[in-house]
Design goal:
This protein is an alpha/beta fold. Strand 8, helix 10 and strand 9 form a beta-alpha-beta unit. It is built from 18 helices and 14 strands.
Length: about 500
């Protein structure tokens, strides 16, 4: 009978008491990008440089499972799992997914369970563990501030993911891609280890469905010491949504990130009827530019995001009343980024040569939100690569719960067309859709291997404005997260942190 996988020893989890750094207000927030692009290494580098380092909280259950299946080089995930307050849960994940030396070349990665409305599943446990591991590693060995970024669209994951991050001592939770009205109250209840209900939108139902998550049941009564409630930052595109959230104590966040259409990844669609330019991209107008005076009048701190990677832009944002800026793309291309090195080099080289195209594609994302896609050889940005990929939905983070005649089912516009139509979807909605889940995991080197030798191709997202490279990466040279902070610091009237 095989022996259980041993868990390495680790220092205690840093969750019991708040650190002095928790009260600091940064002038720079590092964006939570992609799946694993904003990983723990990047967040840790920014945090130790004195600013808010952020890990992406999307799909961290799959990231953890696949890192373990690659053999966990350096033992980092196993070291973090050793600090989890209920060792039995950590050992279960290790026994299921860890492969000494890594899974053999060409062998598919073991599948992970998917979150469902019934709750209480192994998927929730793996989601808690994945978020705990990523935040714990980002905070290990220093007292800087660390945040985690979630998509409001992925509602079934919200509570277990946030609980895992809170167990690891996360300082801030940032939530966008929707209306994060539930997050402040959820953060408070989860920090008290109380059962909480997330309202999940179900297509076809008149009202949202209540989805229960009980931290006490998950930990089998083994409650940790006092947990600290993280600050909540809502990512919005315009002051009108910020004002809506700020008017009620139950929905009021601790601050806002105002993200414009220039940022990478998803962006809000233009206000009013959608118009496309000659290249097929959404056209944004004056109504889509945030009124910063209205933001300042709300009395809550806010940071500007999207095309802010320049010391002068930082100075202008602060002069307009912002606490600072959020920067994504400049960090996505630095050495600590989770993006595969060859993709970073390709992006820097093509941007420097003036041959890089980044499209704000209105069709790529199953969410129907515009999504930035960098056009690179060998990625699903190429029509022939996309056409050769067999449509499959085996991860399902962007699935939509739908009420069908036989009960609840889940649908994604990037899944096989027949399956989508069989579930009541319109075939027209599947045109041009890309599987972001598999594509973004491939971008960080954790691609699924399919039978027959096929490997999932990457999908790369980045912001449209890469002008920062002329200062940070002349001739395509590599640079670090600390270089970004140092370059931007004069705009904040700050010296480079020690």
């Amino acid at each position: 009978m095989p022996q259980p996988t041993p868990i390495p020893t680790a220092t205690p989890t840093p969750t019991a008491t708040p650190t002095p750094a928790a009260a600091r207000r940064p002038w720079l927030i590092q964006g939570g990008m992609g799946v694993g692009v904003s990983g723990w290494r990047l967040a840790r580098a920014v945090s130790t440089a004195g600013q808010l380092g952020v890990v992406s909280g999307t799909a961290l259950d799959v990231v953890l499972a696949r890192v373990l299946q690659t053999g966990d080089p350096g033992g980092h995930a196993r070291r973090a799992l050793a600090a989890f307050p209920l060792p039995e849960l950590a050992r279960g994940a290790l026994d299921c997914y860890f492969r000494e030396g890594g899974t053999a070349e060409g062998v598919p990665m073991r599948a992970t369970p998917r979150l469902r409305a019934a709750g209480g599943s192994q998927a929730e446990i793996l989601t808690v563990l994945g978020n705990f591991v990523e935040v714990w590693l980002a905070k290990e060995g220093h007292d800087g501030v660390v945040g985690v970024n979630y998509l409001e669209k992925i509602q079934l994951a919200t509570a277990p993911a946030m609980f895992g991050a809170i167990l690891a001592g996360v300082d801030h939770v940032l939530v966008g891609a929707g209306v994060p009205a539930q997050i402040p109250a959820l953060a408070s209840r989860l920090a008290r280890c109380e059962p909480c209900v997330t309202q999940v939108a179900v297509e076809g139902d008149d009202r949202p469905m209540d989805h229960l998550f009980d931290p006490r049941a998950l930990l089998a009564g083994h409650l940790p010491g006092p947990l600290r409630r993280p600050g909540v930052l809502a990512i919005v595109s315009l002051p009108v949504l910020a004002a809506y959230l700020a008017r009620d104590g139950a929905t009021r966040p601790d601050g806002f990130v105002i993200e414009t259409s220039g940022a990478g990844g998803h962006s809000a669609p233009p206000r009013g009827p959608v118009r496309l330019d000659a290249g097929g991209e959404p056209v944004y107008g004056p109504r889509d530019h945030p009124d910063l005076a209205k933001m300042a009048a709300l009395g809550l701190p806010f940071w500007l995001a999207g095309g802010q990677a320049d010391p002068e832009a930082v100075a202008a944002a602060r002069a307009a009343g912002a606490a600072g800026v959020q920067i994504g793309s400049a960090f996505a291309l630095c050495e600590e980024s989770g993006m595969a090195p060859h993709l970073r080099e390709e992006l820097r080289g093509r941007a420097g040569a003036g041959t890089l195209t980044v499209r704000n594609d209105p069709d790529a994302s199953p969410t129907s939100f515009p999504f930035k896609v960098a056009e690179l050889p060998g990625t699903v940005s190429e029509p022939e690569v996309a056409a050769a990929r067999r449509r499959v939905c085996d991860l399902g983070f962007l699935r939509t719960p739908v009420r069908g005649p036989r009960g609840l089912l889940y649908r994604c516009a990037a899944e096989p067309v027949r399956a989508y139509v069989r579930k009541g979807g319109d075939e027209a909605d599947t045109t041009g859709r890309r599987c972001l889940c598999n594509g973004l995991l491939a971008t960080i080197g954790l691609a699924q291997r399919r039978l027959g030798g096929r490997v999932e191709p990457p999908l790369v997202t980045i912001g449209k404005d890469l002008s920062f490279l002329s200062a940070l990466s002349p001739d395509g040279a590599p640079y670090t997260a600390a270089d970004v902070v140092r370059w931007l610091a004069p705009g904040a009237g700050a010296l480079r942190p020690a």
